[in-house]
Fold this protein.
Amino acid sequence: MTTAWAHTNIALVKYWGKRPSAGLNLPAVGSLSLTLDRFGTETSVEIADHDAFLLDGHDVENNEAQKVFLFLDRVRALAGRTEKARVTSTNHVPTAAGLASSASAFAALALAATRAYGLHLDDKDLSILARQGSGSAARSIFGGFVLWHRGTRDDGSDSCAEPLTTSLDARLVVVRTTSGKKETASTQGMEHTASTSPFFTAWVDTHPQDLRDAQAALAAADLPRLGEVMEHSTLKMHATTLAARPGFFYFQPTTIAVLQAVKTLRAQGTGAWATMDAGPHVKILCAPDDAAAIAAAAKAIPGVVGVDVCAPGSAARITA
Ligand code: PMV
């Protein structure tokens, strides 16, 4: 049995939209993220007489299990092996609540499954493999700030992530605004947006400049510049969903209240910038010294159900 741990990552410059490919999860745009130290997935893979998937102690037999078994098929094809496997996962993150559990899930599965089938892939190939389970999983192979290259090849061999070097230290204050599951899964959300939103072309066209700005901000350890481009990328992504047909959105009333509070904090002189993914939660980027006060301010907002201060986390690793 092989066990691996991978941490959640949160995109600062977002991945939103796929280019056409046969299930390879090739992104329409590159993205830049921060791997967190707090949330993640621990996954064990053991060769067995049939494929099975246990999540948080329960046997799973739905679509989610099919995605896991398809992923095992990819690993088996790479390894030239045919045996089945039993996958046991524990999510240390609220599942499907927009906290990117699929990113840590497929990064941990890529690492544990390849080792269980006797493969030792380098980080680039692991990232390419993890991407095929869930796009954002390509980034959770690495720790700290990470760049996922869009790539241009149809086979996806140049669409992998890599870690970025920076002297910038930062915190993400994760503010949970509901305890339920999200309404529109990211794949459906991005596909509907790409095919119906007139803003999607503008999103793709303006995205490379956001990525360049974010990388320049990291190189200069410039938190305000990074925060500004992060918030811009977030609001632009969510604008594409509003303009889809029919339009949809991930905001809940408490989401808006937290976004307002971030603006107020900034007006009062605290460096705080907000991002959101395909869910109603808000993540606030800030300097380490400001994190406790920002977390306290977030906890005081009516409707907020949980606040966690996250630091940059480490790369995916084998634990047993
Ligand atoms: O990896 P997926 O298919 O769950 O897509 C993630 C999409 C966003 O979380 C909204 C943005 C991102 O870059 O993580």
